[in-house]
Design goal:
With about 525 residues, this protein is an alpha/beta fold. Among the domains are: about 170 residues, ANL, N-terminal domain (Rossmann fold); about 100 residues, ANL, C-terminal domain (GMP Synthetase, Chain A, domain 3, 2-Layer Sandwich). It is built from 15 helices and 26 strands. Helix 2 crosses helix 3. It binds adenosine-5'-diphosphate.
């Protein structure tokens, strides 16, 4: 046995990331596009220094160790300040998705027991939808010139009236951030990120064969900061000194292309829907924008169609596909072309790049099905993907969703995959009953339950059908009660009470009975075959 000290037990906490941004990359830009389209300029150093004051102010408002601070913000410098301040002071930053229905947001903020919320002025209307349903002790508004409503605090005034906080020492296993993910049935589930997970994720995300982030880069996360930490880009930028360009709510193709070209963006990231629309804009006006510095587009959150890879190749731009989940912080796999395929036929290269890719270092994968147990990596057998690793969840907030974890502690993803001899996964199906539309989830089961609550409806099954713009859209198959009729418009109105507009199906198909399996479940595969066209 060796009898000596080994290495310093240095805590892998986000404090080190925030301090590094402040010490070494103070002058690096953080560019924010405001809701009115104007540009605001800050720096990593200014954000880190303001985070110290913000933390002091939050402490003054009563935020203590482990308390949750909610954000209802776009991708903007203030959001980065909260990403810095809240974990570094020992509290938990809880990012809220403003696209959810008010009832869902109310559930989420109650479940997380958020004490304070920071809201962008442009999202006050969304906030109004659920503010009565939960008691926040303080509401802080990031104003862009408008008046701050009575009873709420102004973000700048809050920061201005406080002193810079000396960061406490934070144990790396403590919670620093949290984010909710859609439940297949029932309510959303909270995923709580430890400091250690986010630090290791930032390091790994920066590796050249992952996202490849360096101080040479200018990153534009189109993926919102309320979706799994904007895939880790803000923390990776702070750790490595990359410039950050934050688009705010302006996510139409022309606005994004304008920002990429005027700010010299080298890497951007988001869901396929965004890049599909952007490709149309580029095809229409190929010479309008200077994209000379743009090196790669990271695309994930939903399957990347081959046409997207080919479309960007035509413009000399490289799309890299990644797979991940809120539960995996989120990066799980990245699809980079292996050396031995570099010279192979275009067909083979596209086939490989259209896969979801190879696991990140430290992320372990396996897949199994009921008949065969763990599947061979022969690209033929299919099974549900299971993962584990230092940035993979070990459970959900408040102990829900225990059935998503195996007895030996692996996380069950609900994605059905094939795995090839290189270990690259290909998602073939989904065991979770959800529709993913434009990168956002819609629960089939929730839609079905609500449709079946309508007096005219006997049975309802909701399936995902392919859609060229959104990836998938929900389609409702209905069997009506004898002797009654109802039209789709009435059903849409009925659903609008519980669902956000974009979650409501466009298509309703009426059948006499819905086919069922031997165990009495709807035969969704048969329905998809029938109605997908
Ligand atoms: P995110 O916020 O990153 O989209 P979610 O947890 O909401 O994460 O969604 C994760 C799910 O999205 C995965 O389980 C998978 O079904 C789907 N998904 C993510 N990336 C891809 C991809 N590249 N190809 C196909 N499906 C994907």
């Amino acid at each position: 046995m060796i009898n000596s000290l080994t290495m310093d037990d240095y805590p892998l906490s986000l404090t080190a990331v925030v301090e590094r941004a402040e010490q070494f990359y103070s002058g690096r830009d953080v560019v924010s596009r405001r809701p009115d389209g104007s540009i605001a300029r800050s720096t990593l150093g200014a954000c880190a220094r303001r985070a110290r004051r913000l933390a002091d102010a939050l402490a003054g408002l009563g935020v203590g160790d482990g308390d949750r601070v909610a954000t209802l913000l776009w991708n903007q410098a203030e959001h980065l300040e909260l990403y810095f301040a809240v974990p570094a002071m020992g509290a938990v930053v809880h990012t809220l998705n403003p696209r959810l229905h008010a009832d869902e947001l109310a559930f989420i903020v109650q479940d997380a027991r958020d004490r304070v919320i920071v809201v962008d002025e442009s999202l006050l209307e969304v906030f109004d939808g659920f503010r009565e349903l939960h008691r926040f002790e303080h509401v802080i508004v990031v104003s862009h010139g408008g008046p701050v409503p009575d009873g709420m605090l102004d973000y700048e005034t809050v920061i201005g009236g406080s002193e810079p906080m000396e960061w406490p020492v934070i144990d790396e296993r403590r919670a620093g951030a949290m984010c909710y993910t859609s439940g297949t049935t029932g309510r959303p589930k909270g995923v709580v990120y430890s400091h250690r997970a986010l630090v290791l994720h930032s390091l790994a995300a920066a590796l050249p064969d992952a996202l490849g982030v360096s101080a040479q880069d200018t990153l534009l996360p189109v993926v919102p900061m309320f979706h799994a930490n904007a895939w880790g880009l803000p923390y990776a930028a702070a750790l490595l000194g990359a410039r950050l360009v934050l688009p705010g709510p302006n996510l139409d193709p022309v606005s994004v292309l304008d920002l990429i070209s005027t700010e010299g963006v080298t890497m951007t990231a988001g869901v396929p829907t965004v890049w599909m629309a952007m490709l149309d804009a580029l095809d229409a006006e190929p010479d309008r924008w200077d994209l000379g510095r743009l090196d790669r587009l990271i695309v994930g959150g939903a399957a990347v169609p081959r046409s997207l890879l080919e479309g960007y190749d035509r413009h000399g731009l490289t799309v890299v596909q990644a797979w991940g989940m809120t539960e995996t912080a989120p990066l799980g796999t990245v699809s980079r072309l292996p050396v031995d395929l570099r010279e192979s036929a275009a067909e083979d290269r596209y086939a490989f790049r259209a896969r979801q890719g190879v696991a990140m270092p430290f992320v372990e994968i396996r897949a199994r099905n009921e008949e065969d147990g763990f599947i061979e990596w022969d690209d033929a057998a299919m099974g549900e993907l299971e993962v584990r690793g230092p940035w993979v969840a070990a459970g959900y907030h408040n102990g829900t969703g225990a059935d998503s974890f195996t007895e030996d502690g692996w996380f069950r993803t609900g994605d059905i995959v094939r795995i090839d001899h290189r270990g690259s996964i290909r998602i073939c199906d989904r065991s979770k009953d959800l529709v993913k539309s434009g990168g956002e989830w819609i629960s089939s089961v929730d839609l079905e339950n609500h449709l079946m609550a309508h007096p005219a409806v006997a049975e309802a099954a909701v399936i995902a059908v392919p859609d060229p713009r959104w990836g998938e859209r929900p389609l409702a198959v209905l069997a009506l009660r004898d002797g009654v009729t109802v039209d789709p418009e009435q059903l849409r109105e009925h659903l609008a009470r519980e669902f956000a507009r974009w979650q409501i199906p466009e298509r309703f198909e009426f059948v006499s009975t819905i086919p069922r399996t031997a165990t009495g479940k709807f035969k969704k595969i048969a329905l998809r075959d029938q109605f997908s066209a």
